[in-house]
Amino acid sequence: MSSDTTDLPSTVLPELLDQAPGIQALRRDIHAHPELCFEEQRTSELIARQLAEWGIEVHRGLGTTGLVGVIKGQRPGAKAIGLRADMDALPVTEQNKFPHASRHPGRMHACGHDGHVAMLMAAAQHLAAKRDFAGTVYLVFQPAEEGGGGAREMMKDGLFERFPMDAIFGMHNWPNMAAGQFAINAGPCFASSNEFRVTVIGKGCHAAMPHLGLDPMPVACQLVQSFQTILTRSLRPIETGVISVTMIEAGVATNVVPERVTLQGTVRTFTTDALDLIERRMREICEHVPAGFGCTAEVEFHRNYPPTVNHPAEAEFVRGVMREVVGPQNVLEFEPTMGAEDFSFFLEKKPGAYFVIGNGDGAHREGGHGLGPCMLHNPSYDFNDRLIPVGATLWVKLVERWLAA
Fold first, then answer.
1. Which of 40, 72, 253, 402 could, after both became Cys, cross-link 35 (CB 3.0–4.6 A)?
2. Kind and range of the H or E element at 265?
């Protein structure tokens, strides 16, 4: 990491600046060896070994590859706080060519989870060395955020029973927000993630004699349009929802009316009530619209992640720490996104908050990066290493303030 610190807040802890090159090397090692959900064996081993070297108690095997580090303060205290970083990569082939680019085609840290691990590791090293607090810090390194529900699986393995934290907090990098700025909001910040599959069943025939069959194609087209009326005519206008049909599969030849058409897509909402309404109306539409054409439809609806809803008191507490670290002018109100995040499972069970740190516009990328933008889930993405001491300082200050409150 560059020795130039002129663009970093003066509140960044000097010890974190001193250790930054080593943590950067760790981050780039993880970036070069990405592992998909529930396959994070090497990453988990690397984290566990490093935590142990710093004298941190380590517990492994939660949610398959997840682990928890435990740091107890020098002074006795009953309070406990959880800090979470996700570890998994995405099934993306990286286009970057710099030295720490992925060595495994089809796998890439395209969402910055390597950087999330690095920021928490930097904080862990500092907290373990100082232990200038009363209480306990639980470092939650979570697998399988990208579709696997690793948070839920860690809870199934007794995360909160074995490590009884009073609150839990998570941080994600956010491209196109100035590097080192923070943003947070109270209430919903990420949407629920849900998938549907609708199969319209008709009767195939020769395309030149459609009257001899039951064509499911116009029925499918009618369903795509009808789903949007749920948002405009069934959902309250002040509610937010998204229904996106993203896949349509049908047919084997241009002169054959297919027997079946399959529609697939996603539904996003900020509340369970809105989701309940959308699923109910989709099922009703899929029952009655095809019937009007003499066809039938089968509906599969899968609820993946619930909405991520920050607890107001904890969100405001974090906002105060952010202002201390980077100044009020660099703490923004987070605009909720219809993307999804499985930190939602944690917030259903424990008080806490989820927030973002700006990753910049991509100018930090070294020569050899891809031609695409530095956006999440893009093959030209890379985490901004200059965030490591800033994010780690926030974690340290949050621990100190929370356990002292």
1. 40
2. strand 260-269
Residue 364 counted as an annotated binding residue: no
Domain segments of the chain: what residues? 14-191+307-404, 193-305
Residues 6+ away with beta carbon under 8 Å from 221: none
Distance CA(209)–CA(26), nearest Å, equals: 65
Given a contact cutoff of 8 angstroms between Cβ atoms, the answer to whether 219 and 170 are in contact is: no
Task: Determine the average pLDDT of the residues in 42-67.
Answer: 98
Ligand-binding annotation for 116, yes or no, is: no
Percentage of residues in the chain having pLDDT higher than 90: 97
pLDDT digits (tens, 9 = 90+) for 225-240: 999 999 999 999 999 9
3-state SS, residue 192: coil
HEC string of 70-133? EEECCEEEEEEEEEEEECCCECCCCCCCCCCCCCCCCCECCCCHHHHHHHHHHHHHHHHHHCCC
Over the Cα atoms of the chain, what is R_g?
24
Q: Report DSSP letters for 233-248, one per residue.
A: IIS-TTS-EEEEEEEE
Which tens digit of pLDDT belongs to each residue from 152-173? 999 999 999 999 999 999 999 9
* 358 vs 174: CA distance, rounded Å: 5
User: What is the rounded distance in angstroms from the CA atom of residue 185 to the CA atom of residue 193?
Assistant: 20
pTM: predicted TM-score of the whole model, two decimal places: 0.95
Average pLDDT, the chain: 97
Angle at 342 between CA 54 and CA 77, to 5 degrees: 45
Q: What is the pLDDT of residues 166-212, one digit of tens each?
A: 999 999 999 999 998 999 999 999 999 999 999 999 999 999 999 99
CATH number, domain 193-305: 3.30.70.360
Q: Which CATH number fits domain 14-191+307-404: 1.10.490.10, 3.40.190.150, 3.40.630.10, 3.40.50.720?
A: 3.40.630.10
CA dihedral 232, 260, 264, 284 (to 10 degrees): 40
